[in-house]
Every structure is written in C-alpha cells, then in structure tokens.
Prior knowledge:
Layout: E1 10-11, E2 18-19, H1 35-49, H2 53-64, H3 67-92, H4 96-109, H5 112-117, H6 129-143, E3 148-153, E4 173-180, E5 185-194, E6 204-207, E7 213-218, E8 223-226, E9 229-233, E10 235-236, H7 238-244, H8 253-295, H9 302-333, H10 342-347, E11 351-355, E12 361-368, E13 375-381, E14 385-388, H11 393-416, H12 428-443, E15 446-464, E16 467-482, E17 485-503, E18 509-516
Parallel strand pairs: 7-14
Antiparallel strand pairs: 1-2, 3-4, 4-5, 5-6, 7-11, 8-9, 8-12, 10-11, 12-13, 15-16, 16-17, 17-18
Helix pairs in contact: 1-2, 7-8, 8-9
Amino acid sequence: MSEGANEEPGTCPECGAAVEKNAKFCTGCAEPLSDEAKALALEKKADAAGVQLWAYKAGERVKRTSWWVKLGIPIAIIVIVGIVVALFVVAAGHNPQATVDRYLSHLKVGDWNDAYELLVHPGGKFSTFDYFQRWQDVQVDNLGRMEDYGVTPRKAENRLFGRLIAEEPINGDPFVANLKFKTESFNVNITAEDAGGTWPFKKYRLRLCEGPTRAYVTPVGAVVSIDGEPVGKTVPDKELEEALSLGDLPDDLDGAVEYARKLLRTAEYAIEEFKDLASGLDKVAQDAQGIFDQAGTSGISWGEVMDSVDQLVNQSKDFGTDVARAAMHLYWVFGGGDDGSIRADLTRAETGLELNNLPEGYHVIEVEMPGMKTEFKEFHSPESVEITLEPNGKMKKAFVDTINVYYSVISKAMLSGDTSDLSMVLAGEFLGEETARVEDLGSRGLTVAAGLNKVEFEEVKVLAGNAATVETKETWAYTTYQGPVPISVNKNVKQDVTYTMLKGDDGEWKIIERKAD
C-alpha cells in the first residue's frame, strides 16, 4: 500500500467527487490524494514554473494565507517604521543645538517666558525672570527686535595660541550664537547642559554665562544698576589694596609671616589678572577670525561685516585698557608713582563691582550718586566696563569756591601774618603746613604780596562721596618784602597744581593737600 493513500472510499477534498480506496489521484479533477502524489505534483509545478521546489512551496503557503494576514503584515511594518522615524524626529528636537535654536527662536518673536524656561538659573540678581524680562526689553529698546541668528559649535582650541587659555565647560556642549539686530550683530557663548530625561526625550538647559564681568566705577560708593537691576555700591578692590600694602615692610617675625602670606596672595592676584588678559586676547582673536569666516559666507552683507569690525575695534580698545590697567597695577605694587600723599592712596584705590552670572551679550549699566551726573553706558558682557562719574554744576561750584577762598586767605595770611582764617578752607596736615609757612615768614621779618594773575580749572575727579581732586593751571605774581622794602619780585610763576579735598561732617569741603609741579 502506498504511504498516504486513501484506505477507505471517500470524496475528493477539491471537487467532492467519489474516490476509490487507496486512490492516488481524483478521477474527476486529478487532484493528488496521497503524499507521494502530492509531492510529485509539486515537483512538476515547480519545474514548469522554473523555480526551486522549496520556493514553490513557500509561494503556495502564501497563497493559502488569509487576506487579513496579507494586509496586516505590511501595515504593521509601516507602523513600526513610522514609529522609528517619529522617535528620531522627536530626538532631533531634543538635542543640545536644537535647544539653543529653540531658545533663540523664542527671543526672535519676543516670547520671554518660554525662552526663560530653557535656561539654567544659577541664582543671584541676574537669574530671576523679572531681570531676564527687563534685559530683553532693554535690548529691544536700544537695538530693536532680533532679526536673525546663527548657531555653531564652539571650537575647543583657540586660533591664536593653538591651545586652550580658558578651560572648556566641564558639563555641557558649548556653542557660539551670532545675534543679528537692526543696528549691530555680536557673538555670545551658550552652553547646553544635560537636564535629565531619556532618549528620545532628553532635556537640556542653557547656561548664558561662564565667568564674572568686572565693572570699574569711580567714585567709590556710587550706586550701580545693570539693565535696571540694582547691583550694589562700588567698593575698593580689597586684593589690590592688600597688594599695595606690600610696601610696608614687617617689623617682627609675626609681621614677616603675614607679609609672606600677602606676597603669595598678590602673586595669585597677578596671575589671575594676566590669565584674564590672555582670555581677552583669545576672544579678540576668535572674533577677528569669525569676521573673516562670515565675510565668505553667502547671505552676509558687507554692512554686517563692517558692524562686526567696528565691534571688534571697540573690544580691542577695551582689551588695551585692561592691559594698561594690569601694567599700572604691577607698577603700583612695586612702589611706582607713590609719593606718600593722600591723593596717591585715593587714586590708586581701584573701585568697582564683580558681576557674577551676568549673561553674555548686550547690557546697559547705570551709575548714580548724589552730586554727580548720572551716567549710562552700553557694553557687551563678559568684557569689563568702566565709568567715571562727573560732578554736577553745584558740586563743581563748591570746589571752585573753596579753592578761591583758599587763594584769598593764603594771600592775606602771607601779607599780614594772620593765619586765623586758614582753618576756614584748610584741614589736616595741610593746615599745619600752611600755618608754619606763614609763621616762618614772620619769624624772618618777611611778608609776601601774592597776586593770582590767571587760573584754569582743568579736571575735577570725585574719588568718593567725601573725597575729590581738582587740577588747576595757575599763574602767580609774588613780591617779597623785608619790612616795607621789596627785596624780590617774580611776576610770572606758573604752576600745575592738584588739590585734594575732603568733605567734613558739616558738609563743607576743605583742602587737605596741595601738590604743585
């Protein structure tokens, strides 16, 4: 008996005709009934189709598959591919550069709230939403709305030295954003930091500042605001004050130990100052290279390139000022220019504020103080900013009146020998010096007729709320008498004079020092 043949009479599964026992094929439709017949039939069909038997069998199984399975498989594949594509699209919007782009696009349309939500908030005055909103309003008021921007990864190697001057951020991906406004364009550094989440929904927050910005402001005690945010009063630079005190040599062992500590701190201060200079020089070099790179980019107008050049020139001026300041600090530390006067001590007391976490970019600083003209100045953080307040007309008049009274009382005292009026406008050691000078003339039987032929008030500097210097050019005529007899005449004595003045508790200004060249 053949394997798989019908052992009992039956019907054909294909056409339903009656078939005999052990029949291999249906007599009605020739459908193979035994396994052997079925295999032989498949081989013939495969040969006729010109394919391998296994391939023909696979095709036959597909034909027997139900329609819903045939339709469902490609749909499932399309859905899976769609999900994968969607995940990659979502991930593309949740990477560091996309976060920077999203932040800048919010700024471009004036959406301060959504822009602020993308930022790292390190704390302090410059991290609140109120400040952020005021900062953006200040930019719009002065520069107009941002018109365009570009974002590129920040290179880890500077172009000037071929090595790092400032360390790259430990956390995050650094970028340089070029912000374009109607009147100017400038670059800012932005770092995207990991804020949690998993792929494809990674989150990033943007850090807008990497170091402090220094505001140098004279006089000490002036009130400073940045973009409308009060940030405090200017104070003397304690590190510089300590460095200048190195000229006072110690008297004992304990003093020598403290002197050595001051010397070490001064060395660290100088190193940090020159590291800042190196970073500033690197920034100038990078911006210069950026201008050349932009000049060869399509879509960048020559007007925008020249705006960048103008900004670079101003930045270079600021860098030159920083170099001069550092050199002057070293000169002072080693005793240069110190004549031991109060004026020297006051003018060498660098004042200012360290502005921590101030975002890089455009800012406006406002400085005010009673008796002084309020000053505003635009600057780009993290470059330092320097402002010197000028006294208003009322304060200048008080200085001029005080010096004019001095001219009167000293002339009167040298002619009469009466020093009682000197205390009206003189104080401290200077009062004693002038009194001694008049008394010395009297002890030798001399009097002097002093006449002021000409005076020009050159420069007035207010160093603190109670301290100022006034520079003058004076021409005097002196006639010296021995009793009633004139013994010498000098009609054209020219002097460049610097007066140092202090304000007393009674609100009156008095001269405490007069230095003539």
